[in-house]
Amino acid sequence: MTYVYKVCSKKEWSDATEVGFYSGSEVDINDGFIHLSTINQIQVTVSKHFAGQEDLLIIQFDENKIQNKLKWEASRDGDLFPHYYGNIQTKLEDKRFDLDLGINGIHKFPENFFS
Q1: What does the pLDDT read at residue 37?
Q2: Residue 87 neighbours by CB distance under 10 Å
Q3: What secondary structure does DSSP assign to 34-72, as a single string?
Q4: How far apart, in whole angstroms, are the C-alpha atoms of residue 87 and residue 69?
Q5: Mean pLDDT, range 98-108, rounded to an integer
Q6: Backbone angles phi, psi at 86, to 5 degrees
Q7: How far, in Å, CA of 69 to CA of 80, rounded?
Q8: Can you name the residues that pair with 16 across neighbouring β-strands?
Q9: Which long-range contacts (CB under 8 A, 24 or more apart) does 69-73 make?
Q10: Please, which pLDDT band fits residue 64 given cuts at 50, 70 and 90?
Q11: 59 with 96: CB under 8 angstroms?
Q12: Model pTM greater than 0.85?
């Protein structure tokens, strides 16, 4: 299986689960799609777009379950990123991980996240 990941605030995801779908962050809504990352892209995504932010989650999705509205498009450094066009049903969440901010201001990914 191949997975893609969304980083968002705990409140955003909590609100989404109440209504059953995730419309995206303010940036996602402005861009017209939900920004996702692969396992190889997520560390740079977090450091570039979420630096210093607390109360974050990483939501894991099975690419096969969301492929109907998923497009791979060139973005940072020409790398292909997964972009989801539409609302993602929260029931499609495969796993959820806390993304804690360390005392040094750097996010600590969950143990075994990259293995």
Answers
A1: 97
A2: 15
A3: EE-B-TTTHHHHHHHHSTT--SEEEEEEEHHHHGGGEEE
A4: 9
A5: 94
A6: 135, -170
A7: 15
A8: none
A9: 70/4, 70/36, 71/33
A10: very high
A11: yes
A12: yes
pLDDT at 77: 83
The answer on pLDDT for 1 being more than 80 is no
- Report, as an integer, the average pLDDT of 14-24: 98
User: 93 has which bridge partners?
Assistant: 61
> What is the residue whose two structure tokens read 């996010």?
107
Partner residues linked to 35 by β-bridges: 83
What are 65-70's contacts with CB under 8 Å, separation 24+?
65/92, 65/94, 66/4, 66/92, 70/4, 70/36
Sorted by where each starts, the structural domains of the chain and their CATH numbers stand as 3-105 (3.20.170.20)
- pLDDT tens, 23-62? 999 999 999 999 999 999 999 999 999 999 999 999 999 9
Chain position carrying tokens 């998923």: 70
